[in-house]
Amino acid sequence: MVDCYIKRTMRLIKTIKQMRQWAERRRRGKTIGFVPTMGALHEGHRSLMRAARRRCDAVVVSIFVNPAQFGPNEDYARYPRDLKGDAALCRREKVDVLFMPTAETVYPEGHDTKILVGRIGEVLEGAVRPGHFSGVATVVAKLFQIVRPQIAFFGQKDYQQTVVIKRLVRDLNFPVKIVVCPTVREKDGLAMSSRNRYLSSEERNASRVLFKALQKGRERIQEGERDSAAVRDAMTLLIQEQPPARIEYAAIVHPDTLMEVTQIEGPVVLLLAVWIGKTRLIDNLLVKP
């Protein structure tokens, strides 16, 4: 169904061999921009595609819900999937190739290699989701080898992921430039995410508290507060006023190392992971005193 829907406007590729063949032909004098996604595409993904289109000769978008980055009790089975809608969105954004491999294609029988990303993958998200960033790093490395882009585009909304991928590229000498694009938000500030589809109307209303809390933290810093504990308390108190909200972590870290900061003396990142009902949301804000 998806094949017929997009065949006149962009190329659908499902196999590694065909993707590599296309990339080899296209790389001759051309720049390939790559936007890896897990589908359920929204305006945040569109912003990445547009950034790629502005900077590159050809744009490849992958849709692959990566089982390796989900824990045993996480939402892999119910993660939103909308292949027809995603294909239509990619077509509107003039994507050249939509790469949609299966799990069996990416992880064939006997696949047993994983990438360990070290300390930056073990804190924050890595601490509450063990193995998550190993799964992310492994699939991104494989996709880079298959698509062979010169530039890859990621959203700041998954801040720790961008740090992990930059380290991956640096440490393993991938010839790929990583471009991080700003978080795209709804009018009320909620960061766009595929998981927002899980929220009921009441939960959707409550979810606005994440961005409000980040704004409160930024406000305290810009007013002169340098004690990170005081800033963190201001954020958490605001979130706790919303009954459906349950904080998993609230952190203030160095933008590059992700080390916790006690005294704010330079740029920091405020990071939140909050459950709204049964939906887990993350958000962040880069703040310069």
Question: Care to give the gist of this entry?
Answer:
The protein has helices at 2-6, 16-26, 43-55, 83-92, 103-106, 125-128, 132-147, 159-171, 201-206, 209-222, 228-240, and strands at residues 11-13, 32-37, 58-63, 97-99, 151-155, 177-181, 245-253, 268-276, 279-287. It is built from eleven helices and nine strands. The protein is an alpha/beta fold and 289 residues long.
Please give a structural write-up.
This protein is of the alpha/beta class and 289 residues long. The protein folds into 2 domains: 2-181, 3-Layer(aba) Sandwich (Rossmann fold); 194-287, Pantoate-beta-alanine ligase, C-terminal domain (Pantoate--beta-alanine Ligase, Chain: A,domain 2, 2-Layer Sandwich). The chain contains 11 helices and 9 strands. It has helices at 2-6, 16-26, 43-55, 83-92, 103-106, 125-128, 132-147, 159-171, 201-206, 209-222, 228-240; strands at 11-13, 32-37, 58-63, 97-99, 151-155, 177-181, 245-253, 268-276, 279-287. It has a 6-stranded parallel beta sheet, with helices on both faces. A 3-stranded antiparallel beta sheet has the order 7-8-9. Helix 4 (83-92) links the parallel strand 3 and strand 4. Helix 10 (209-222) packs antiparallel against helix 11. The longest helix has 16 residues, at 132-147. The radius of gyration is 19 Å and the shape is globular. The N and C termini lie far apart (52 Å). Residues 1-8 have low confidence and may be disordered.
